[in-house]
Design goal:
Two copies of one chain form a homodimer. By secondary structure, chain A is of the alpha+beta class. In chain A, 26% of the residues lie in helices and 23% in strands. Chain A is built from six helices and twelve strands. In chain A, strands 1-12-2-8-9 form a five-stranded mixed sheet, sandwiched between helices. In chain A, strands 4-5-6 form a three-stranded antiparallel sheet. A two-stranded antiparallel sheet of chain A has the order 3-7.
């Protein structure tokens, strides 16, 4: 019987810049009586990773550029300091709504506001995505593996909207220790039909599954996903970024 | 400690038109020694639902229209009979690639090939999405609840690609028994900041989580997701369809 378990990790406390997140998560698991096992995937919300990496910005220190001020007028008075940060964190603007801006970040992720968050960080402050979320995932994995002597996967999640469908889902912005895509192409179904377009974004499904226990307001910033049976592999979330040439919905300018 | 469990349901056997899917899933659970509980979400792959509803089509019986033949020439010789079925199942074409066609189905879902599948159905046959997946979910729920005297949720899943990100994730095309969106708007974070854009597509995350045990070739066409703690509600997957006026990536013609 195939069975998967997702265990919320609580009691991490408020994370500050420089905090050793890998160790803190391992210790929080121990306090819960949860022993990490080979093959467990440790999932962390981007917020705690960004906080531990000092990615919080005091909006009062941000001077909007002319482009940010122009965008603010266009986007219903959206905070020009936030827009300045969004522009700094982006390669290009993909789309604009009434007060919404969707960009491609320097990592290649397409999301609203370059993933910059104003919630759960304190008034007048903004929290940027990690500069290198795959690197963050690798560091957290190294530390957690060293302390527990297990072979782990790590996923760093963020909450993205989607075209065509309402509501957000959590996706993987950082991955370490396994391949984020499972490629079934070339395999055949029970009728002998060759599977042609079957590549599963397993890391994104793990991210969304973990959100089911992490939630948005429940103080559960991490989770363990157990039972995925993914082989150890030197994977990264960069593999999830669709190349421009292969993208029917590139948009933008 | 928040904990979620996902249990694969096997041994459903080959599903044929008219088979009572709700009863078959309940019986398969019993054979596995799994007793359904209040609050469990029963997840079923679209394929078994479509098969039980007689949505398989013999491609030899399909005569392509002029438009389907024209599209076939445009799309690298893609089977004009398949294109004919795609056009019949669609409201409009959203985008075309070299041999790819993305449409909006009559349900309002935006996906490749109108969700029509050639795998796991036998050579020369195609499998359409259920005509009314929310209705299918309600019927399966009614039957399973009647047999088990429990309050269940039901999700019917399909595998969709996404813009900007490689790989597919499973999403909900049919929902019964709970609200597919969790709306956090108006709630405040621990700092008192009001959450503004936080609506979570919990049904899609449940679909993706279930795929982690159902897989693509593993003969696990159903799963139980246990521990979501979703209140009983008369929800539907139609609530997940983003209204055109609210869509920055409508595309198409």
């Amino acid at each position: 019987m195939r069975r998967l378990e997702i265990i919320g990790v609580e009691g991490l406390g408020e994370i500050g810049s420089g905090d050793p997140l890998g160790r803190l998560v391992v210790e929080a698991c121990e306090r819960q009586g949860v022993t990490l096992r080979d093959g467990d995937v440790l999932v962390l919300a981007q917020k705690v990773v960004s906080k531990s990496e000092g990615r919080a910005v005091d909006l009062h220190t941000v001077t909007p550029s002319a482009e940010a001020s122009r965008l603010s007028a266009e986007l219903d008075g959206k905070d020009p300091r936030l827009l300045e940060l969004i522009l700094r964190e982006s390669r290009r603007i993909v789309a604009k709504g009434r007060s919404t801006i969707v960009v491609e970040t320097h990592h290649g992720f397409v999301c609203a506001n370059a993933g910059i968050d104003l919630s759960n960080i304190g008034t007048g402050r903004a929290l940027l995505l990690p500069a290198d979320p795959d690197g963050s995932a690798r560091r957290i994995r190294d530390e957690a593996q060293r302390l527990t002597a297990t072979a782990l996967g790590v996923v760093i999640t963020d909450t993205f909207g989607r075209p065509w469908r309402l509501g957000t889902t959590d996706v993987a912005i950082g991955v370490a220790g396994f391949a984020p895509l499972i490629d079934y192409r070339g395999q055949t179904d029970p009728y002998g039909y060759e599977l042609k377009a079957s590549v599963t974004a397993v890391a994104d499904q793990i991210a969304g599954a973990a959100e089911l226990v992490m939630g948005k307001t429940s103080h559960v910033p991490a989770a363990i996903v157990r039972g995925c049976e993914l082989p150890q592999h030197d994977g990264s979330a960069q593999e999830l970024v669709r190349p421009a040439a292969d993208d029917l919905f590139r948009g933008g300018r």
